[in-house]
Design goal:
Elements: H1 6-33, H2 38-58, E1 74-78, E2 81-85, H3 93-109, H4 115-133, E3 142-145, E4 148-151, E5 157-160, E6 178-183, H5 206-215, E7 231-236, H6 244-256, H7 267-275
Antiparallel strand pairs: 1-2, 2-3, 3-4, 4-5, 6-7
């Protein structure tokens, strides 16, 4: 059986989550009209949980920790330029949408005597929707185009291909949260120079802090074989629902093959990438 392409999986996940969330809200309103009697209360609370569990099981391939992540990219455009993009993880965010939207419906349909408590409960429910379900609907976190990598969501930063260390990055270990990418250091007086990208998640990881300290060492060697010769960008694999070894292989492939970069984002170029592994 041929697996659906990533774009199809993501579209199905989002549509299923929205429909199930609508069912959960409708059930909450129905229970409220019945005065939250025991049968209605049981159904209104149990149905969203069942729907969320079903969504989680149906789209488990799109969990960032899944061992069966799609071995393909999304083909899309960025400002009119063809790009390869990584889909956003859909699980457990789709399940989160179903549960949280149902909670919003329950709060609207079940008012408390105190208006302040009512407003606070609704605000918490809406916050949970945005925090838990929102990531499934964001734009791709990682894109590849002819110029390089674009990392980030709201203000993606560009890493030119030639700024990436040769034969990098290494394949990540199973379950790894980050993909460390060595890039050419920029001049100290030019922190926005191409190739320098702020760590998209900060420096809470001790290994990142160590890398940061090494790359800021004024006695850093220029030997490309030394980790001290590079700045490091940490790609957050928790925001990537494409096979993580494929992502690393694609970066290495386009770094080493400039002639292939013109085909990035096209069907032919994508097929060539997949057969090159």
């Amino acid at each position: 059986m041929i697996a659906p392409p990533p774009a199809t999986l993501v579209r199905r996940s989002r549509i299923t989550a929205v429909v199930c969330a609508a069912v959960g809200v409708t059930t909450a309103f129905w229970a409220a009209r019945r005065g939250w009697d025991p049968p209605a209360t049981l159904i209104a609370h149990a149905l969203p949980v069942v729907l969320a569990a079903a969504h989680q099981a149906a789209f488990r391939r799109l969990r960032w920790r899944s061992r069966t992540l799609p071995k393909a990219f999304l083909l899309r455009t960025h400002d009119g330029t063809p790009v390869l993009a990584t889909p956003r993880p859909q699980a457990p965010h789709g399940a989160g949408l179903i549960l949280c939207i149902s909670l919003v419906g329950a709060r609207i349909g079940n008012t408390w005597p105190n208006p302040a408590m009512d407003a606070a409960g609704l605000a918490v429910a809406v916050f949970l929707v945005v925090r838990w379900a929102g990531p499934a609907f964001l734009r791709p976190y990682l894109e590849l185009d002819a110029d390089g990598l674009r990392v980030g969501v709201f203000r993606p930063r560009l890493i030119p291909w030639d700024a990436i260390g040769p034969d990098s990055p290494a394949d990540p270990a199973p379950g790894a949260r980050d993909l460390p990418l060595p890039v050419t250091p920029s001049a100290p007086e030019d922190p926005e120079a191409p190739g320098r990208i702020e760590d998209p998640k900060g420096s809470q990881n001790p290994e990142r802090t160590q890398h940061s300290e090494r790359t800021q060492n004024p006695e850093r060697t220029d030997d490309p074989a030394s980790t001290d010769a590079w700045d490091w960008v940490w790609i957050d694999l928790r925001a990537v629902a494409t096979d993580h070894t494929l992502v690393a292989a694609a970066i290495r492939y386009y770094r080493a093959n400039p002639d292939a970069r013109a085909g990035i984002g096209t069907e032919a170029g994508h097929a060539q990438l997949l057969t090159s592994r």
